[in-house]
Design goal:
Bound molecules: flavin-adenine dinucleotide
Strand content: 15-25%
CATH topology: FAD/NAD(P)-binding domain
Structural class: alpha/beta
Distance between the termini: 31 Å
Largest sheet: 8 strands, mixed
CATH architecture: 3-Layer(bba) Sandwich
Number of domains: 1
Shape: globular
Oligomer: single chain
Helix content: 10-25%
CATH superfamily: FAD/NAD(P)-binding domain
């Protein structure tokens, strides 16, 4: 269970200290990292500029099996077996070999956070520095070693926040697309490899998970409507960061007859990046772990967050050095790069075909049930739900009072 010490206004006291692990960013990737460190005995600090679950970052749709296997099903709001795809001249209904569910962001974060043991503090992270004279293996917890002015030991990374400096030998950047702890110049939109997404969240009901591949809303990209039990998440994503999405989002809301209220949006990385940089681990959007074409980044943030957390756990247990963990995690992420590359090429093709009359016949050709089963099966396998069942026992520390969910090995109807 996380220990919270959120400070506001005058209470926003200086924050400093030396930790075994500092996880920066308390959304999907960061919480997955912390989960894998639960019960490891490591002193873990998690920081985010907002409270956990405070700022919803997406339409919050993910494969149901991922949510169930992580013990997060209480956050599920609606489940869909079919995907309804609107092309300019025709609508297709595809029955998927597995289901998607929309979920409540705050509830999911609370459930996932409850599976880790960490202290949580609100702080804005601005950068990092490393203690010169670091050793090769990183400082072991409990080491009695010389420390610099901010309390860092050799091998520690110092994280700069608006409340002070924090240090730890193991540091994760799960801060999203800005990759705040990355080296080199931070490339900003529209030059960066980013898509952009914007949606509205009116109170409304819907039965289907719907997509629009229609240039009337967006030239290169797609639009969506995801129902979540009394709330519709209606939005537009553009693969080209120069194309604005506010007006099309308002138009789509009008077309599906809901008010354009409660806007939320963000940049979405569409190119995978190095998952380590020097002594820092990156997971989720900070490493470009968001799938091109679909902009599905929750499942992959969870997946790479778990993988990263398992490496950190092995370092804490003394089974490998930090450098070994960095190398193993970087290689794990890199081994997926060709799949991200293939989806990026598909994304480019969608951007070219969408404005032409070819989109409707293309979607018709893709509508064979066999092809859908194969394509969506291969797509799920990029970050398979079974991964959530590996590593530490996923049910080792269910939220207090929660019914113990049964893990599933197959798609849930
Ligand atoms: C409109 C929209 C809809 C989307 N819909 C879906 C969807 O339905 N399904 C799906 O799979 N993907 C969706 N995505 C993509 C998905 O939201 C991201 O890929 C996913 O959130 C990545 O998770 P993350 O944990 O890496 O980063 P984030 O969820 O972005 O979390 C980063 C965290 O870091 C914190 N933070 C950032 N900077 C700082 C700082 N300097 N200091 C301290 N804290 C900081 C933030 O507050 C946040 O909590 C959508 C994206 C958008 C924009």
């Amino acid at each position: 269970m996380p220990v919270r010490a959120t400070k506001r206004g005058a209470e926003r006291t200086p924050l400093e200290g030396d930790w075994d692990v500092v996880v920066c960013g308390a959304s999907f990737a960061g919480l997955a990292v912390a989960r894998e460190l639960g019960g490891s005995g490591a002193r873990v600090l998690m920081v985010d500029r907002y409270e956990i679950g405070e700022r919803q970052t997406s339409a919050c749709a993910a494969p149901t099996e991922w949510l169930v296997n992580l013990g997060l099903e209480r956050s599920i709001r609606q489940t869909f077996r079919d995907l309804v795809v609107h092309a300019p001249a025709r609508t297709f209904r595809w029955t998927l070999p597995w289901t998607f569910s929309t979920f409540d962001y705050r509830e999911l974060c609370t459930l996932l956070g409850a599976q880790g043991d960490f202290r949580f503090e609100t702080a804005t992270v601005s950068g990092k520095s490393s203690f010169a004279g670091r050793n090769a293996s990183g400082a072991a917890p409990g080491d009695v070693t010389p420390r610099n002015a901010s309390g860092a030991a050799p091998g520690d990374v110092t994280i700069h926040t608006d409340r002070g400096d924090l240090s730890a030998p193991l540091v994760v950047d799960a801060l999203g697309w800005r990759r705040v702890l990355g080296g080199g110049a931070n490339v900003q939109p529209p030059e960066a490899f980013l898509s952009r997404g914007l949606e509205v969240h009116p109170d409304a009901a819907g039965r289907d998970l719907e997509l629009w591949l229609d240039p009337k809303y967006v030239r290169a990209g797609y639009a969506w409507s995801f129902p979540a039990d009394g709330e519709l998440r209606v939005g537009v994503g553009s693969f080209d960061p120069r194309d604005h999405v506010k007006q099309p989002t308002v138009e789509l809301a009008r077309d599906v007859d809901v008010p354009a209220v409660r806007f939320q949006g963000n940049w979405i990385p569409h190119r995978i990046r190095a998952a380590t940089d020097g002594d820092v681990f990156f997971a989720g959007d900070s490493a470009g772990h968001c799938l091109p074409t679909t902009a599905e980044g929750i499942r992959t943030a969870l997946y790479f967050g778990l993988a990263c957390g398992r490496e950190l756990r092995a370092v804490v247990a003394g089974e490998r050095t930090r450098e070994e963990a960095l190398a193993r995690y970087a290689a794990f992420s890199r081994s997926h790069a060709w799949k991200f590359g293939a989806l990026l090429r598909t994304q480019d093709a969608v951007g070219r075909v969408n404005p032409t009359p070819l989109m409707t016949p293309l979607l018709r050709a893709m509508s064979s049930p066999r092809l859908i089963r194969w394509a969506f099966g291969a797509y799920l396998a990029i970050a398979p739900p079974s991964f959530a069942l590996e590593g530490r026992d996923p049910l080792a520390s269910p939220p207090v009072g929660a019914p113990v969910p049964a893990p599933v090995g197959t798609a849930t109807p």
